[in-house]
Amino acid sequence: MARTVTGETIRDRARDAATSRPEVLHPLHAPLTPEGGLAILRGNLAPDGAVVKQSGVVPGMLRHTGPARVFECEEDLENSLTAQAIQPGDVLVIRNEGPRGGPGMRELSIPAAMLTGMGLNESVAMITDGRFSGATRGPCIGHVAPEAFMGGTIALVQDGDRIEIDIPGRRLDLLVPAEELARRRADWQPRPPAVGGGFLELYARHVTQANLGAILKA
Predict the structure, then answer these.
(1) Which of 3, 32, 112, 215 sits 20 to 30 Å CA-CA off 143?
(2) pLDDT digits (tens, 9 = 90+) for 151-160
(3) Cα separation of 148 and 44, whole Å?
């Protein structure tokens, strides 16, 4: 094993370390929770997965079913929040913020903070093909893959559709019959690219989906 500047390994240095505040830094035999802070959800709304910070979700929102409110970008949602047009129970769907659709997979920390400031983070869920900050609170589900720009199911969601979130069961489902989704998919057209020319266009053409790391691939 690699040595530190003292000539010891990190394991050697840490072997006799003591925790002065075990209520903050929990030992392995007494973890704060039985699971980690993040959970991967799958379902017909996120066939290739989505990510939620489950440690920031209140127990009453670990399972939630509500009507979709669809927004085509972050700014549309922020305007709706400012107008106080969001109702408790809503499931906000923010799409076209994925790696290719953004392009660049924006962090939706502002609307997440607005929800918290308005006292809605314990009654309203957010789902996006973009991403969230590690400090986000509430049922904010990001990294939905495939993203809307690539024709993922999130592109087919309509206002009023019922969405079921089951974090303990690791599920994220759009409660719309398969035949209706097939009809919508047949009518779906990709949104025009958000940029034209330059590096961002190159990025949008070659970046992978969120579940593959959103990295450039030749």
Answers:
(1) 32
(2) 999 999 999 9
(3) 13
The angle subtended at Cα 37 by Cα 114 and Cα 156, nearest 5°, is 60
d(CA 41, CA 139): 12
Positive or negative, the Cα torsion across 145, 187, 104, 58? negative
CA distances from 26 to 4, 109, 114 (A): 25, 28, 32
Helix, strand and coil percent figures for the chain, each rounded to 5:
25, 20, 50
Q: Which helix (H) or strand (E) holds 77?
A: helix 74-82
**Under 8 Å between Cβ of 77 and 71:** yes
Q: pLDDT at residue 1 above 80?
A: no
- Extract the tokens encoding 37: 């802070």
Alpha-carbon gap, residue 34 to 108, rounded angstroms = 28
Segment holding 68, helix H or strand E:
strand 63-71
pLDDT digits (tens, 9 = 90+) for 79-94: 999 999 999 999 999 9
Tokens of 166: 């089951």
**Annotated catalytic residue: which of 55, 80, 109, 133?**
133
Report pTM: 0.88
Sign of the dihedral defined by the CA atoms of residues 180, 181, 184, 186, in that order = negative
Q: Is 20 a catalytic residue?
A: no
**What local confidence, expressed as pLDDT, does residue 18 receive?**
84
